[in-house]
Structure formats: structure tokens, C-alpha cells
Amino acid sequence: MISLRRRGMMLYEVMIGVILMAAFATLAVEVIRSSLRVSRDASEAAGLNARFDGAVAQLRRDVWSAAKITAANPTTLNIEVPNAKPITWTVTKEAALVRSLESERQAWPEVAAGITFESDATTVALVEPATSRRDARRIPLVSQLAVAGKGTP
Prior knowledge:
By secondary structure, the chain is α+β, with helices and mostly antiparallel strands. Helices cover 38% and strands 27% of the residues. The protein has a domain of 96 residues. The strands form two sheets. Strands 1-2-3-4-5 form a five-stranded antiparallel β-sheet, covered by helices on one side. The protein has a three-stranded antiparallel β-sheet with strand order 6-7-8. A hairpin with a 2-residue loop joins strand 4 and strand 5.
């Protein structure tokens, strides 16, 4: 007796298999793209944070030894240090934080988006506006000379 059992696959079964494999391949490609994008964005964010930390560290050193601190406007800070030339810090329209000392200019690009300066007689605050990812924050910096009363009035 001859078996009437099918051997092989019907065309629609093959098509369903190909469609499922194509869908899986598409999802796999999107997952790989997303993980590469996240990796790149994390690397850029780490570089940006390192530049910002470097700028704040330099500003902290300048303010620490300042005899007089004045904020000419929200984007310009003037620091007078005893026995040294005045230092000017500026936030540019391109979001760079720039330190100027006579003809010497040091810039930290893209670290100061929306940042402003606030100043009183003894402290400076870097003010960062709130974003969709974090709340607003203030980074206070103190002048030891001004607090000790040895700065210029």
C-alpha cells in the first residue's frame, strides 16, 4: 500500500517562514542600531561631563583666590586676584565657557548651555536651568579671601 503522506512543504508555509525570518532580522537590526546609538551618546555625555568638570574646577580655583568678584551681566563674570591680572569668564552664544586672562583664552565648548552667573560679595553661583531630564541646579563657589575680609571692598 502506498502512503499518501505529504513529503515537503507547501508554498504558503515557505512564505510564512520567510516573513517570520525577515521580521526577526528587522528587529535584530533595530536592536543593534539602538545599542550602538546609546553607546555613542553615553560616550559623548561622558566627554561633555569631563569638560564641564574641568571648567568648574578652574573656575573654583579662580574664585577661591579672588579678592573681588563681580557679575557684569548673567553671562560675564569678572574676578580680581591680588597681584595678578583680572580674569574674565564668559558664557558664549555657542554654549562655550571661556576663561580670558589678558591675551590668553581657554574655552570649554558646548558645556554651558543656558548657564548663567550669579554673584554677591563672597560667592559665585553657576546656575543651570531645568531640562526635561533634570531639575535646575546651582553650583556655589566661595572666595576664601572675600569671606575672610581680605578682599577689596
